Amino acid sequence: MLILVLLGAFFTSCMVVRPGEVGVKQRLGKISNEALPEGPKGYNPFTTNIITLPTRTVNLEIKSSLPSKEGLTITSVMSILYRIRPSSAPTLLRDIGRAYESEVILPVFRSAAADVSSRFLAKDMHSGERSVIEAQIRDRMAEILEPKGLIVDNVLMKAIVLPAGLSRSIEEVLQAEQDAQRMEFIKQREQLDAERRIIQAQGERDAAVIKADADRQGVEIQAAGGAAATRLQAEAQAEANANLQQSLTDEVLRYRAIEAFLEMAKSENSKIIITNGESPFLGLPAEELMNDN
User: Fold this and answer.
1) So what CATH class is 57-162?
2) Residues 78-103 pLDDT 10s
């Protein structure tokens, strides 16, 4: 029994497929169709070998020369973020081998990058079109690589080096555009300031007009009030006179005359009373009446 155990241990070995990897058995040179997940795996070291491939995202950095639409050559540093589909690892090893980066990924990238960049101007690689270029390169690569089990997550343009003359021209154009934008901003600011002054002047004018109208209306109202008060006073006086005239009957006048005679009779001062027998004529001193006579 001990001999059998020793023989089994001699003909059996073990290895561990680590996290972020997938294992594929190769028995007597033949690739197995089974993808081994992470964990310990036993195998016969004399007939079998376990090949591991990374399934985590790999950053493949490439320095490449890209053609532009105007025929310039742009030096660039780009990163390809890719990963292996675990279930496709056996087919990838069988069809391409472990050198899939140099055999497939790099040639596909160079072809896709040259095809896409040749449709854009050099200055576009420094503008908002940069993300469009990256997305189109990634899509072109995905069309070819994903059926083979290679998933392209992203393509990033990390650095772009333009020819010296072109860089200077682009800088001059950008500077001119910034100057034009600054002048446009100054123009808009001056226009807004002029509109503000116009609105302020209009407001002051409207306020003056409103104040003048209010003063005029106040004078008119005051004059109208004075006229109304005078009219009411005259009407009241006329009404009082009318009432007084109606109340002065012959009997009342005779009674008032008698009262006047009685009051004058009580006075110690000498007075001349001229009367027609019904009412006295009062208010003239005796000297003035004698002079008149």
Assistant:
1) alpha beta
2) 999 999 999 999 999 888 888 999 99
